[in-house]
Specification:
By secondary structure, this protein is an alpha/beta fold. It has 18 helices and 19 strands. Helix 13 links the parallel strand 12 and strand 13. The longest helix has 25 residues.
Length: 563
């Protein structure tokens, strides 16, 4: 069972928070409504509430115990959002139901399926009510909420729209130790069963809080963080390993680079014009733009700029993020996406005490695109969220991008490397609120972005049509590769991707990679990504002719009926 309890006062934002968690679950959602419609104004409230929920969500209004209904929905593999405890108990009280039975139902809540999210009122925070009926309601709300939190994997308190993580589990002295109880001044993060680092044999190395005084992963695991697709290349090999569109930069960009080479390399680089162009592209101000020596530098700046106490990195993803944090002595917890759940992001899987969370969107090497709601659900008081959007310009329309959102606690990292074939120029940038952007600048080496990269950033920002063309090309090449794989390699396990690469799982990954190399084709063996294993291989899509050669060689390299 995965039980999440969201607690808050009236108009605190608790329902909106619960809805964001439900949307981020990746499961079909059923909204379990408990409030009674007793007048016209309440009917209007319910209508507004229903209108803001996704149309694909189902809604049920159970006559009896909503927790039992929710458990049934979860056992069927769905996500049930019960909103909320106060309405249920008030209705039960109105019909003369014994409130003790409601408390017992909360204590016995059990499911072996998907997820149950329960919204509960933070009742009784003030003086004791004057009448017996209200006192009974407050008592029942408090008892039911405590019983649910004792069984929950995640519990949160919402105050004025901000989320305060609570320690879930039985209260101190109960059957289960209270998570967050001081043990040598250590506060342990809440563990969620949807975190795939709880699943055995997923990753080549154990997933746990690592680095710092508490130790870290073995040396070979740290070395794996510095492995990238270009290491698979050699002269004469067809490149299906590096996820950069082939053919080199487009003509208009080559012209901009030539102009910079002829006019700008004899003086120190200035970034004002590039910042202004990028700000205009994303609807930001120049003070919110930080050019960097590729997206990798932006990610390496996080440690010294933010000095987090505990970072969480969602994997599998670009591994230089974790490498950079470790190099600066930052303790890191790996939050692993589950391949069997489609690599979906589960915000509640992030340790509650993490004050920095980094996630790739789209993620590499799976190509998974998370909805903006899931990324926004990562926000919490005292936490900075970093979204690596280095691959998002390969997706037509850039759905889910947060680049234009001026949030005070979020950094978005972008790159021109993939879509415009600029791996050798190192052109990237970060977008952040002015205060966060300045912290990045404060630790950035002077003149770290050269004149050619700045010229490329400026030119690309002024050519959204060209970026859109590159995204459509990447989409067409990927769709061609996916279709050929399905036809030629029946049973091959793949995952939906929005980028120009596809992750596959093979019974003998190293053997297949070696046979492809012998056939003159380089691909990316993906075992170095945390959360993946030796059977995972990333294939970069190219033009139809190159894709056909790759697929034919792969079909010959793997046995029939690969699953």
């Amino acid at each position: 069972m995965s039980l999440v309890v969201v607690i808050g006062g009236t108009r605190s934002g608790k329902s909106a928070r619960a809805e964001a968690l439900a949307a981020a679950s990746g499961l079909p959602v059923t909204y379990v409504a408990t409030g009674a419609v007793i007048d016209g104004e309440m009917r209007e409230r319910v209508a507004r509430h229903r209108a803001r929920r996704p149309a694909r969500w189902a809604t049920v209004e159970p006559d009896a115990d909503p927790l039992a209904v929710a458990a049934t929905i979860a056992r069927d593999g769905g996500c049930a959002l019960v909103d909320g405890i106060g309405g249920w108990l008030a209705t039960a009280q109105h019909h003369g139901t014994d409130l003790a039975a409601c408390v017992a139902a909360a204590r016995e809540l059990s499911t072996r399926g998907g997820r149950v999210i329960v919204v509960a009122e933070h009742a009784g925070a003030g003086v004791t009510p004057m009448d017996a009926l209200t006192r009974a309601w407050v008592d029942a709300v408090g008892e039911v909420t405590q019983a649910l939190v004792a069984r929950a994997e995640v519990a949160e308190l919402v105050v004025a729209g901000r989320v305060v993580p609570l320690a879930a589990g039985a209260p101190a002295g109960g059957d289960r130790p209270a998570v967050g109880t001081p043990e040598g001044d250590e506060v342990r993060p809440v563990r969620d069963p949807l975190r795939s680092d709880a699943l055995p044999d997923r990753a080549p190395s154990p997933a746990a809080p690592t680095a710092g005084a508490g130790g870290g992963p073995p040396d070979d695991a740290l070395a794996d963080l510095r492995v990238h697709g270009d290491a698979a290349l050699a002269p004469g090999l067809a490149d299906h390993a590096v996820n950069v569109l082939d053919g080199g930069p487009p003509g208009w960009l080559r012209a901009a680079l030539r102009t910079a080479l002829e006019t700008a390399v004899d003086r120190y680089p200035g970034e004002r014009d590039a910042c202004a162009a990028l700000a205009a592209r994303h609807g930001r101000t120049p003070a919110e733009v930080v050019p960097t020596n590729g997206a990798a530098e932006a990610l390496w700046l996080l440690g010294p700029a933010l000095a987090p106490r505990h970072a969480a990195v969602v994997h599998p993803a670009f591994t230089e993020t974790e490498a950079g944090l470790r190099a600066h002595g930052i303790p890191v917890t790996r939050v692993l996406r589950d391949p069997d759940a489609g690599f979906a992001l589960h915000p509640s899987a992030v340790p509650a005490d993490a004050d920095l969370v980094v996630v790739g969107n789209p993620a590499s090497p799976s190509g998974t695109l998370d909805p903006a709601a899931a990324l926004l659900a990562l926000r919490a008081p005292g936490r900075t969220v970093v979204v690596d959007e280095a691959f998002l310009d390969l997706v037509p329309g850039e759905p889910g991008s947060l680049a234009a959102e001026p949030l005070p606690d979020m950094i978005v990292v972008r790159s021109l490397t993939k879509s415009l074939a600029l791996a050798g120029v190192r052109a990237g940038y970060a977008l952040a609120a002015p205060a966060l952007a300045q912290r990045l600048r404060d630790v950035r080496p002077p003149w770290s972005v050269n004149a050619l990269a700045l010229a490329a950033l400026r030119a690309a920002a002024q050519r959204p049509d060209a970026l859109a063309d590159a995204a459509r090309r990447a989409e067409a090449e990927r769709e061609d590769l996916v279709a050929r794989l399905a036809d030629a390699v029946p049973g091959l396990r793949t995952w939906p991707s929005v980028t120009n690469f596809v992750l596959v799982e093979l019974p003998d990954g190293p053997g297949a990679v070696a046979r492809l190399r012998a056939d003159g084709i380089a691909v990316r063996h993906a075992a170095s990504f945390p959360g993946l294993h030796a059977g995972h291989v990333r294939l970069t899509a190219r033009d139809p002719q190159a894709n056909a050669r790759l697929v034919a060689a792969l079909a010959a390299a793997v046995p029939a009926g690969v699953r």
